Amino acid sequence: MQRLASVRLRLTPATVERYRRFHFLLIFIGLCGHAFAQNTTPPNSAIGSQDITVRSQSNLVLIPALVKDQHGEIVYGLQADDFIVEDDGVPQAVHLDETPEGQPVSLVVAIQRGRRANYEFQRMLGLKTMLDPLFATGTSRVAIVEFDSKVDLTRNFTRDESLIDADLENLQAGDEGAAILDAITYSINLLKAEAENRQRVLLLISETRDHGSKAKIEDTVSATGSSNVSMYALAFSPGLSNILDTERGTNINEMHEGVNFLDLGYRLAQAMRKNVPNTVASMTGGEYELFMSRKKFEIHMNDFTNHLHSRYLLSFAPKDPHPGLHQIRLRLKDPGRGVILARSSYWAKAAK
User: Fold this and answer.
1) What are the φ/ψ torsions at residue 55 (nearest 5 degrees)?
2) Cβ(220)–Cβ(340) under 8 Å?
3) Which of 48, 183, 211, 275 is the most buried (most CB within 10 A)?
């Protein structure tokens, strides 16, 4: 007994401090478990005091990020501490999550059929073949949306490749509208209904300017920012296509009207000032490409399918998620390692 007492007397202050911290840790775990069981937020929770919800499970903002080097090749092997993320200028603790191998994909293909879009159909003949890798997984779900002045759901989500092929073979010319904002908003709402564990992707094939949407720009911004949807845009320019088709003689029915090059130049300049697909793709961290030939279209589609599973899945818990649009800035600590394509914003809503 005397020996045991001498051992107790020789406990150092550091050892006592470790036991004290361990005791407090057990108490903290017990309190958290009680709060979870009661489905309540601990009294001092910053999230509870803000009364804010973010469109994501566990109050996390997800940032799928594609990193390319100076040659356009994908950069692999980066870690969480290679990235810096800011939310409205405030640095955030960023986490790098493991992307499940073969994560199932839900894809909406939104295709413009209005205005001169029917002249682009011949350049999109390889679309069916380029979707083959997605259907080969057996887990992908694809929907087809077509739009002119109105938006139509041609095919709801399906794993049946033959149904999608038939729809793409039966594309028809539409009216004089190109309601791009309406199509984007409609497609994002479709994707929001898909399971959380699925990668949600919108592939938009359209011209660059909106013609006739009923949705306001802020509605599309809100829908885009409050979802974890990545949008890829393959765009065509009606003006450039008209010139090229005239040179090729593939738009005979329009040639008698002549080509007003001054008007075309003006419309092209306006399109550059307001490019809806490029802007929205940038917001979601997707990619934007302009195609003027079938070869270019197929090259960009091949990149699209290859890049689907090449992204880093980053996330952070906002420190101050005020309601409204938040600006995200994601960059590499070493800028020389590559260029990042990632979402530039998210939308936080006040709790009801």
Assistant:
1) -70, 70
2) no
3) 183
What tokens were used for 303? 């990149």
pLDDT in tens, 192-217: 999 988 989 999 999 998 999 998 77
Calpha distance 81→96 (Å, rounded): 9
Number of H helices, E strands in the chain: 13, 15
- The span from the CA of 308 to the CA of 100, in Å, is 13
Whole-angstrom CA distances from 182 to 118, 167, 186 are: 19, 21, 6
Average pLDDT over residues 298-314: 87
Side chain identity at 347, as an amino acid letter?
W
Counting Cβ atoms within 10 Å, is residue 197 exposed (0-12), middle (13-18) or buried (19+)? exposed
Tell me the pLDDT of the chain averaged across its residues.
76
Going by C-alpha positions, the residue among 106, 187, 176, 116 that lies closest to residue 146 is 187
Q: Are 309 and 103 in contact (CB under 8 A)?
A: yes
End-to-end CA distance of the chain: 65
Six-digit token string for 158:
């399906």
Between 93-102, 130-139, 157-166, 290-299, the lowest mean confidence (pLDDT) is in 93-102
| Measured CA angle at 329 (ends 94, 270), to 5 deg | 150
Percent of the chain with pLDDT strictly greater than 90: 38
At residue 127, the pLDDT reads 92
Token pair 């592939």 is found at 203
pLDDT for the residue numbered 352: 59
Residue 153 is encoded by which pair of tokens? Answer: 């759901």
Instruction: Please state the rounded mean pLDDT for residues 123-152.
Output: 93
Burial of 114 from C-beta contacts in 10 A (0-12 / 13-18 / 19+):
buried
DSSP H helices in 173-260: 180-192, 217-225, 238-248, 252-255
Selection from 85, 78, 47 nearest residue 63 by Cα: 85
Helix (H, G, I), strand (E, B) or coil at 282: helix
Tokens found for residue 264:
């075309």
- For residues 75 and 193, give the distance between their C-alpha atoms in angstroms, rounded to a whole number: 32
Q: Name residue, tokens 């929205």.
A: 280
